[in-house]
Design brief:
The complex is a heterodimer of chains A (about 180) and B (about 120). Chain A is of the alpha+beta class and about 180 residues long. Chain A has one domain (about 5-40, about 50-120, about 150-170): CheC-like (Chemotaxis protein chec, 3-Layer(aba) Sandwich), CATH 3.40.1550. Helix content of chain A is about 35%, strand content about 35%. Chain A has helices at about 5-25, 65-80, 85-110; strands at about 30, 35-40, 40-45, 45-55, 55-65, 115, 120-125, 130, 135-140, 145, 150-160, 160-170. The two termini of chain A are about 15 Å apart. The relative contact order of chain A is 0.26. Chain B has about 120 residues and is an alpha/beta fold. Chain B has one domain (about 5-120): 3-Layer(aba) Sandwich (Rossmann fold), CATH 3.40.50.2300. Chain B is built from 5 helices and 5 strands, in the order βαβαβαβαβα. Classes of the chains: A alpha+beta (about 180), B alpha/beta (about 120).
């Protein structure tokens, strides 16, 4: 199957897996938007939760979101108001990424073969700033950028007034 | 009353599982936690655990290796184990059951799904 065709069907799997997760364990409304290929090699964001996988196909599934949205997800999952970006918030983002990746993997396995998931990794920019003229520090809108040579398949969502993306890098192995 | 061990590398997930059990009306005397299979084995050795909930993908020792280790451990080999994991699909469920898991629940789950799965092993108030 052509990679474009694979990606269309995978985007639907990402949408349904993410919706199920938000309905069952995060309790936030979720509006999906149309998936697209991210042409920019530098993806700017606050927080990345990623799970890689190997098998006949290999790649990465990643959640890109703002710190504010990460706090909201963690607060809802733990049923408590979390205002600081603690280790617990990173743990929650890792679990969200893990559950999305696991369910996408389950949907892909019958067609694309067994895949093996990694432990989730969470990367968050903290306390970064750019220095503007006159040495006045200016806090950037986003704090980290993620570089990739291949374009991410991005599935965008809006929840609680915040946009976030679930991205996928997928390649057939041994090619 | 039963003692329940929750093995998951995510402390957040351990909290969610414990909260769901407490709110479900299932009777539990005490909860124990472990961050991977190796730590889980230590908790089983040093405590009288009645039910184990175990994730699959974890550092140091995976859930499936933990299940195999427990089933080959002699005195503690009959403790019921329910896998609670993002690993879905028939092949994975079959592998877990063949290794000795007594139940299987895929994340994400609802509180009712967890209660239904654990109702086979715990009494309700």
């Amino acid at each position: 199957m052509a990679m474009e065709g694979i990606m269309e069907s995978v985007a639907l799997d990402i949408t349904s897996s993410t919706k199920t997760l938000f309905e069952t364990m995060i309790m936030l409304d979720l509006q999906p938007d149309n998936a697209f290929f991210e042409d920019d090699t530098q993806i700017k964001t606050d927080v990345i939760g990623m799970v890689s996988f190997t098998g006949k196909y290999h790649g990465v599934i990643a959640l890109f979101c703002s710190k504010r949205f990460a706090l909201k997800m963690a607060s809802n999952m733990l049923m408590t108001d979390i205002t600081d970006f603690t280790h617990e918030v990173k743990d929650a983002v890792g679990e969200v990424s893990n559950m999305i990746a696991g369910n996408v993997k389950t949907k892909l396995t019958p067609q694309y073969g067994e895949m093996y998931l990694s432990i989730p990794i969470v990367i968050a920019g903290e306390g970064l700033s750019i220095t503007a003229v006159d040495n006045h520090p200016v806090v950037a809108d986003t704090t980290i950028s993620c570089f990739s040579k291949d374009p991410w398949l991005m599935t965008p969502f809006i929840s609680n007034g915040e946009k976030f993306n679930v991205g996928l890098l997928l390649k057939e192995s041994n090619k | 009353m039963p003692k329940v061990l929750i093995i998951d590398d995510s402390a957040v997930m351990r909290k969610i599982i414990q909260r769901n059990i407490q709110q479900s009306g299932l009777l539990v005397d005490e909860f124990f936690e472990a961050g991977d299979g190796r730590e889980g084995l230590e908790k089983v050795t040093s405590n009288n655990i009645d039910l184990i909930l175990c994730d699959w993908n974890m550092p140091n020792m995976t859930g499936i290796d933990f299940v195999k280790a427990i089933r080959g451990s002699g005195q503690k080999s009959n403790i019921p184990i329910v896998m609670v994991t993002t690993e879905g699909g028939e092949a994975k469920i079959e592998e877990a059951k063949n290794s000795g898991a007594n139940g299987y629940l895929t994340k994400p789950f609802t509180p009712d799904q967890l209660k239904s799965k654990l109702g086979n092993f715990l009494l309700v108030k």
